[in-house]
Amino acid sequence: MADPLGILARAAHRSDNTFNMREYIYEAWDGSERKALEYLGLFCFLVVPYAIYLGMHLGVLHTGTDQFVRICFISALPFAVLAYSDNAWSSNDAAPVCLAAWIAVCIAFSFKCTICVIGLAVTFFLFILSALLAHGFGAICRFFKDRIRGYVAD
């Protein structure tokens, strides 16, 4: 198991005393920190569409009501990408990150508006449904990709 601080120290103490962030990210991505980087990236990505939707829902942002399908689609994209690109990724990995992003956005909006928790839970269900559908699509695409590679290799 790679030590993130050790990787950071090695990258920082190069001969020219410059910090090479790209080298650190590559080593962390190939090592055991990959799952943590996926969690962090997914969280940061999901906060944006969730905040946009909640802003629309609470009347802070004024847009058309037809934007919900687009926001669900955009928020579901990383689930399909992760399910396709990472064999170890599962929907059990995504659920806590999804919930944490939703809670963070709800807390941020709770300082500006009074929020009905039950109403927010109902709208979050649609995001969960779109994420599960996207995850399934990515997993099916990965399955067919693996089958094709196996067929070509034989």
Describe it.
With 154 residues, the chain is mainly α. It folds into 2 domains: 1-32, no CATH class; 34-153, no CATH class. Helix content is 77%, strand content 0%. It is built from 6 helices and no strands. Helix 1 packs antiparallel against helix 2 (21-30), helix 3 (34-57) crosses helix 5 (91-110) and helix 5 runs antiparallel to helix 6. The protein is globular. The mean pLDDT is 77.
Summary tags:
154 residues; 77% helix; 2 domains; mainly alpha
How is the secondary structure organized here?
Elements: H1 4-12, H2 21-30, H3 34-57, H4 67-85, H5 91-110, H6 117-153
Helix pairs in contact: 1-2, 3-4, 3-5, 4-6, 5-6
Kindly state the number of beta strands: 0
- The low-confidence parts are none
SSE arrangement, N to C: HHHHHH
What's the Cα radius of gyration?
Answer: 19 Å
Strand content: under 5%
Helix content: over 70%
* SS-derived structural category: mainly alpha
The major beta sheet can be summarized as: none
Q: Helical stretch count? A: 6
Number of domains: 2
Query: Terminal Cα separation, in Å?
Result: 34 Å
- Summarize model confidence as the mean pLDDT: 77
**What's the overall geometry?**
globular
